[in-house]
Design goal:
The structure holds two protein chains of two kinds. By secondary structure, chain A is α+β, with helices and mostly antiparallel strands. Chain A contains seven helices and five strands; from the N terminus they run αααβαββαββαα. In chain A, β2 and β3 form a beta hairpin. The longest helix of chain A is centred in the first third of the chain and has 14 residues. Chain A is elongated and about 95 Å long. The C terminus of chain A is likely disordered. Chain B is mainly α. In chain B, α7 runs antiparallel to α9 and α9 crosses α11. Chain B is globular, with a radius of gyration of 22 Å. The N and C termini of chain B lie far apart (50 Å). The chains are: A alpha+beta, B mainly alpha. At the A-B interface, α3 of A face α1 and α11 of B.
Chain lengths: 231, 347
């Protein structure tokens, strides 16, 4: 008895269970108030808009920062892939699905002979994109690429360059470059929203090198914000 | 003599022809309703859960029941090796037969009833109890544990709720003074309150709950509790036999709903005071009112299903024996006393 008294003194009851009176519980039992509340809920829900998306007919636009099928960025100056064959992406890849083969060119430069990604092993972590110092390997918003053969999931330089042309060429690519890929050769700054140790007084780190948002439909959008369009 | 016999024969054949025609009409109408009851059930419950329901077959999935029918017709009819085959074949037919036979005594509007017998209500009770045989035999013949458990549950449930269902309608029988469903509707029309749901609200309450339990619908769908018993009594059934069980269940639902319409909601007629207030409503044929009331009842079935989770088995039994049957008995006593009190002065 004594201990329970002490305990009641010690602990303050924050959430109490409210005991309803005899009449209230009688009304509750006779008129099924809780079941009626539930039925009201289902009836009102019946008149709301269903959340179902009929997938093949109506497609959801990928959100900004989506990690879909890979692409190799085409250098607009040379028309070839930007990749220099440093192998950082292959080194960081957790599932080891990137294979790079290089050789020495006629002018003693490094030539990327083969750049292969096995999509079926990829886990879409986007580490390769983060690791790439030149922003040469990126991920597109393309996600519908089911196929009957395994061969179509083995990406090579031409197919990866094709992906760039198809899905990321132009404004979309520029928007992603500024906001998500941010290669280390052009953007050294720690993003302001990233939690890192900053010495006192240097509260404002260098802002990310954001060029003015390239297009109307993507302006002012940041990661995580939904981009529902085309509907 | 000869001529008389032929006229008798002609009259007999005419009667038979009329009855066969009525049976064909009722069967076609009810089967159509059963098919689309599944469609609307899926649609309504989907909307109550913010889904869309069937959308692919035809516009808004309107042809879904037809596709389902064709599919179940051409599906392989799997018969378990260890099943009791004659009973296994018979059980779904038996269930559906019991459900469809009941339709014979239900008046859809004034005069349109296949057989206008004076024990209509009793006949319906008898047949709906027989329907439980389909379930029990199916569970027994499947020779498998889940169907057997489902069948056991079903037999106990149907026996318990049969009592409450019967007792809940005794009040109506007392007030109408008849077991004939047509007479009950007419008596309701002459009753100043218009609908028997007003004086018999306790009876109606008991009736609704036991009708849901009687037809094995959620929240009393323990015989086919998917989460516990795979599929319940029809776990081992496939193809058209499975579909027969479904047809029996939905026919039972339609019958229970029409029973509620006939005994409590005034059948194919509107209450007299409504007709006095809005005389133009008398133009509308009775079958329209009957169907509207029927659809409201069936919608209530779906609504309940979308809202309330399944009861535990002991709760089911407790509700049946400790709440519904005493309530129904009290209702009978009160109704009888009131009738005695109201009629004693006049005789």
């Amino acid at each position: 008895m004594n201990t329970t008294d002490e305990q009641t003194d010690k602990y303050v009851k924050v959430v109490g269970r409210k005991e309803s009176g005899f009449l209230a519980s009688l009304i509750k039992r006779v008129f099924f108030t809780e079941i009626l509340q539930g039925m009201k809920l289902t009836l009102t829900t019946a008149f709301k808009k269903p959340v179902t998306k009929q997938y093949p007919k109506e497609k959801t636009e990928a959100r900004a920062g989506f990690r879909g099928m890979h692409a190799l960025v085409r250098d607009s100056a040379t028309g070839k892939a930007k990749c220099v064959g440093c192998g950082l992406c292959a080194a960081v890849c957790p599932s080891k699905c990137i294979n790079i083969y290089t050789s020495e060119g006629p002018n003693h430069e490094k030539v990327v002979d083969r750049y292969e990604i096995e999509l079926l092993r990829c886990l879409y972590c986007s580490f390769c994109v983060e690791a790439c110092p030149f922003g040469a390997v990126v991920m597109t918003e393309h996600y519908e690429y089911s196929d009957y053969s395994k061969g179509s999931f083995f990406m090579t330089i031409p197919t990866l360059l094709d992906n760039w042309d198809k899905y990321m060429e132009g404004r979309r690519g520029a928007f992603y470059l500024d906001n998500f890929w941010r290669p280390k050769t052009t953007d050294f700054a720690t993003p302001t929203e990233q939690a890192v140790f900053r010495p006192k007084g240097t509260n404002e780190s260098t802002p990310p090198a954001t060029s003015p948002a390239p297009s109307g439909d993507t302006a002012g959008e940041v990661a995580g914000e939904s981009r529902e369009k085309g509907e | 003599m000869d001529i008389g016999l032929t006229t008798d024969l002609k009259g007999f054949l005419w009667d038979v022809g009329v009855i066969v025609f009525k049976i064909a009409v009722v069967l076609a109408a009810v089967m159509g309703h059963v098919a689309y009851a599944t469609y609307f059930e899926r649609k309504i419950i989907a909307r109550m859960q913010m889904r869309l329901g069937p959308m692919i077959v035809g516009p808004y999935g309107i042809l879904q029941p037809i596709a389902d029918g064709i599919k179940s017709f051409f599906k392989e009819d799997i018969i378990p090796t260890n099943s009791d085959k004659p009973i296994f074949f018979m059980a779904p037919v038996f269930g559906l037969m019991a459900a469809l036979t009941t339709l014979a005594v239900i008046p859809f509007y004034d005069g349109f009833v296949i057989s206008n017998i004076n024990i209509g209500l009793l006949f319906i009770f008898a047949m709906s109890s027989l329907g439980a045989y389909g379930i029990i035999l199916a569970g027994w013949a499947s020779n498998s544990k889940y169907p057997f458990l489902g069948a056991l549950r079903s037999s106990a449930q149907v026996i318990s709720y049969e009592v409450a269902l019967g007792l809940s309608l005794v009040g109506v029988m007392l007030m109408a003074g008849s077991l004939n469903l047509t007479d009950i509707v007419h008596a309701q029309h002459e009753y100043p309150g218009g609908l028997y749901i007003v004086p018999q609200f306790i009876g109606f309450f008991v009736f609704v709950i036991s009708a849901i339990a009687e037809t094995n619908r959620t929240p009393f769908d323990l015989p086919e509790a998917e989460t516990e018993l795979v599929g319940g009594f029809f776990t081992e059934y496939s193809g058209m036999r499975f579909a027969l069980f479904f047809m029996a269940e939905y026919t039972g639902m339609i019958i229970m709903s029409s029973l509620a319409v006939l005994c409590f909601l005034g059948g194919w007629m509107l209450p007299a005071f409504v007709l006095k207030l809005l005389p133009f409503l008398a133009v509308v044929p009775g079958v329209v009112w009957f169907l509207l009331k029927l659809y409201a009842c069936i919608f209530f079935y779906y609504w309940i299903r979308a809202t309330i989770p399944r009861y535990r088995y002991d709760q089911l039994m407790a509700i049946g024996w400790k709440v519904l049957i005493p309530l129904a008995l009290v209702n009978i006593v009160i109704t009888a006393l009131m009738k005695l009190w109201l009629t004693s002065g006049r005789t």
